[in-house]
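A quick aside before the break. I want you to see a complete sequence-to-structure record at least once, exactly as it would be stored in a machine-readable document. Don't worry about memorizing anything.
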Amino acid sequence: MKNDKTVSVAEQPKPTPTVKVVITKENGHNHGGTKHPKDTVLDVSEADAKFIVAAKAGELQKEDK
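That is the input. The structure line, written in tokens, reads:
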């Protein structure tokens, strides 16, 4: 008997991809209810990263190859 509440692997939500953002604003940036100082590296969603960059509070971190 199959339990109707079980979720197959294909139906499980996929984790939101994250990107790294470096806070560049002198006064830091509030994200997720926490004040992050300048030069802090955050893992945030792509949407949050776009907002932080648009607000001139940070930059996308370059990936090391």
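Two observations worth writing down. The two ends are 50 Å apart (CA to CA). Strands lie at 18-23, 29-31, 34-36, 41-45, 58-60. We'll return to this after the break.
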